Structures are given as structure tokens and as C-alpha cells.
Task: inverse folding
């Protein structure tokens, strides 16, 4: 009987290790997704700044033409 219990304990340990690996991979994946979202947000903000700057320059040119 002892051998059987030891086998079960080994399986449980292996399952726990697999679960830990999965959780760690999920955390890494989540961190990567957050990083990508932040980069996309930064790119979007940078594009908006460029558009605002271009609009401002266009307005200044229009004002000078008047």
C-alpha cells in the first residue's frame, strides 16, 4: 500500500507543478498583453499629438494668410 500512496503523492506534486507553470505562463502572457496595450496606447497618443500639431500649424498658416 505504501508504494501506491507514494505514487499518488508524486502525481499530486506533478499536478501542482504543472498548475504553477500554467499560472506563471498565464501571468507572463497577461503581462505581455498589457505591455502591448500600453505600447499601442502610446503610439495612439503620439499620433494624436502629431495630428494636433499639424492642425495647429495649418491654423497658423491660415491666420497668416489673412
Result:
Amino acid at each position: 500500500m505504501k508504494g501506491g500512496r507514494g505514487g499518488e503523492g508524486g502525481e499530486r506534486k506533478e499536478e501542482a507543478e504543472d498548475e504553477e507553470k500554467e499560472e506563471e505562463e498565464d501571468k507572463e502572457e497577461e503581462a505581455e498583453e498589457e505591455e502591448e496595450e500600453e505600447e499601442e496606447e502610446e503610439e495612439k497618443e503620439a499620433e494624436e499629438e502629431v495630428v494636433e500639431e499639424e492642425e495647429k500649424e495649418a491654423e497658423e498658416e491660415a491666420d497668416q494668410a489673412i
User: Anything to note?
Assistant: The longest helix spans residues 2-65. The chain is about 95% helix and 0% strand.
